[in-house]
Amino acid sequence: MKQLRQLAALGPAFLALLGGLSPAAAQPLLTGYWADWTAADLPPESIDMTRFDIINFSFGIPTPSFDVTFNSAQSTVLLQRLVAAALKAKTGTRVVLSIGGWISSQYFSAAVATDASRLTFARNIYKVIQLYKVDGVDMDWEYPGSAGSGNPFTPSDADNFQIFLKTLRQVLGTSAIITVTVSHEPWDGPSGQPITDVSITASAIDAILIMN
Q1: Domain tally for the chain?
Q2: Does the pLDDT at position 9 exceed 70?
Q3: For residue 122, what is the domain's CATH number?
C-alpha cells in the first residue's frame, strides 16, 4: 500500500481512447506517476512493475525556446534508471515522460501558438524521447485557455493545442504513446466555455488521464 500511495496510482481513470495501448479497444489502464523527488523513499528499482501498465515520470519542463528540460541533472539519471528498471522487470510496463504539471505549464501557450513553434516543440520532444528511450509522452498542460499556477493563456489555446497534438503525432510516428492529462471537462475555448469538438485530439492521442 505504501508503494501505491507513493506512486499515486490512478487505476481505471486512465482510459484508452483508441485502443492503441491495449488489445481491446477503450480498456482502462493502470498507471501511476513516479516523481524524481520521491527517489529517496522509493528508488526506481524497488517499484513493483507488475502493478502497472504505464509509469509516468514527472516531470519534463517546457522551456521558453520550446525545448524540454528537467529539474536537475539528477532527474535525467533517475529517468534512465526508471527505464532500465522497467525493461529489467520484463512485465511490459511502459515508461512515459510527463511534461508540464501544475507549476511548469507557463510556456505551453507560446509553444503551441504557431506552426513554427509547434513543430519546434514536437521535434524537441522527439529528441528527448529518443535520448532517454522512453515509450512516449504525456502532455500535462494546466490549463489550455485558463489559468493554472500563473501560466499565461489565450482564447486560442485549445484550438492550438489540438493542432499541436496532430503535429506531435506526425513527428513521433504511430509507435509512440501520446496521452494528455485533463480535468473533468474539455479545455476552455474562445468563449470561456469548454470546447465541444475534440475530434482532432482523439485522432492524435492514445489515451487521456483524468485528474481527480
Answers
A1: 1
A2: no
A3: 3.20.20.80
